[in-house]
Write a structure and sequence with these properties.
- By secondary structure, this protein is α/β, with parallel strands linked by helices.
- The chain is built from 13 helices and twelve strands.
- The strands form three sheets. Strands 1-12-2-3-11-10-9-7 form an eight-stranded mixed β-sheet. The protein has a two-stranded antiparallel ribbon with strand order 4-5. It has a two-stranded antiparallel ribbon with strand order 6-8.
- The radius of gyration is 43 Å and the shape is elongated.
Length: 413
């Protein structure tokens, strides 16, 4: 006889190890970024530091505004809404960075660029927090404006009163902290939508077919700023005006979080994850079913099994199919009555008509719980109705009655 390469237990362990290895590889491919996290203290949508923008993302989600933190194809995702490019840094004389920002801006119809203002040094204990912040040089901020085709000059000054508010955004609170009250504004000749002290806080520009809005001071929308009165309302009103009912897409490719689309990731994210789960469950079921066939083939069972149990089961099945279960119950009942008479030494001269009364007296004397007349009626009803369930229930009660009559009722504590 040919022997199996592995025992059933070994085959199960091998299949389990292979499956776990494959699943682990897939999960690491899909969720490595989520497991490792994105420890950022910079000015991006993942950052929870004072100068980050994760709070704005969460506020929009709480208000049921469709919001996406995008790592690829941001312009396409912003179709019908607004693309937000928060604090892109374009070093002076870096033509490559300027071209990259220009290409991203022109990939969408409506874009909001938040100018950079701060540079933060991350903490050595927690990379998501800051040890210190420093103000960027004005020429670094103006380099971003030049990449957008604007010749506006950056001015940092104590903010004055709101003089122009085309979108009805209200008065922002331009504080990063209690001891720093300096607004970053633009001295622009035209395109001003919102001005503070005569200087532009929100500008409207055109880059090709793109309508571009520039928020000159990020302290209105960053994590620290949103906690100050007026800023949250200002930020939400501005985004509602620009998105026009569409989504708000935060681009993170310029912050170094770009990632190409992955088929594996798509298969394990909603809604395709539901289909993937069904396919994996089907594969598990198929493998599980196949494990039972691993190894030598089992011999065919004999056509007729030996033993009393098989004989009893086969006889019962034949009686049920032929509809004779009622006759079998009658005979079983008569046999049980006769067995009780013999066991209890019924008088020989006892007439047949007197048997029920004698059995009932014996039941009462022995403390039985099944009245003979009631049992007899139940058997008769089952035979008459020819209901298999009723026949089985009656047979079970006949057996119970016989045991009580011959051995006494069971005593339960």
């Amino acid at each position: 006889m040919t022997q199996a390469a592995f025992s059933r237990t070994a085959a199960t362990l091998v299949a389990g190890a292979i499956g776990a290895s494959l699943l682990g590889a897939i999960l690491l491919t899909v969720f490595l970024d989520d497991i490792a996290g994105r420890p950022s203290a910079s000015s991006d949508g993942y950052s929870v530091s004072a100068i980050g923008h994760h709070a704005l993302v969460e506020v929009l989600e709480e208000l049921d505004v469709p919001v996406v933190v995008s790592r690829h194809g941001s312009g396409v995702k912003a179709s019908g809404g607004v693309l937000v490019i928060a604090e892109p840094v374009v070093p002076p004389d870096d033509d490559g960075a300027a071209e990259k920002l220009h290409a991203l801006v022109t990939s969408a119809r409506t874009v909001l660029v938040v100018l950079p203002k701060w540079y933060g040094a991350p903490s050595t204990d927690n990379r998501r927090w800051l040890d210190s912040v420093a103000v960027l040089d004005e020429d670094e901020v103006e380099a971003t404006l030049r990449a957008l085709g604007s010749d506006a000059e950056i001015t940092r000054t104590t903010p004055g009163a709101v003089e122009l508010d085309s979108f009805e955004l209200g008065t922002p609170d331009l504080h990063l902290s209690a001891d720093y009250h300096v607004a970053q504004l633009a001295d622009a000749a035209d395109g001003r939508v919102h001005t503070v002290g005569g200087l532009g806080l929100v500008l409207e520009l055109y880059v090709g077919d793109t309508t571009l809005y520039v928020l000159t001071d990020p302290d209105v929308v960053n994590n620290a700023g949103l906690g100050r009165p007026g800023n949250a309302g200002f930020a939400i009103a501005l985004l509602d005006q620009l998105r026009d009912g569409g989504p708000v897409v935060f681009d993170e490719t310029l912050h170094g979080f770009g990632a190409e689309p992955s088929l594996w990731k798509a298969l394990f994210r909603f809604p395709l994850a539901l289909i993937t789960l069904h396919v994996m469950l089907l594969m598990v079921i198929v493998v599980w079913a196949g494990l039972g066939r691993f190894g030598p083939a089992h011999g065919a069972p004999p056509p007729l099994a030996a033993g009393k149990e098989y004989l009893v089961r086969n006889t019962a099945a034949l009686l049920r199919v032929a509809g004779h279960h009622g006759h079998a119950l009658e005979r079983y009942f008569a046999a049980a009555v006769e067995a009780v008479r013999v066991e209890l030494h019924a008088p020989r001269e006892l007439a047949t008509v007197d048997v029920p009364a004698w059995l009932e007296r014996m039941r009462a004397a022995r403390g039985g719980t099944v009245p003979f007349a009631e049992l007899r009626d139940q058997v008769a009803d089952a035979v008459r109705n020819r209901n298999p369930r009723a026949v089985l229930a009656a047979a079970d009660r006949v057996h119970h009655w016989r045991v009580e009559m011959t051995h006494g009722p069971r005593q339960h504590p």
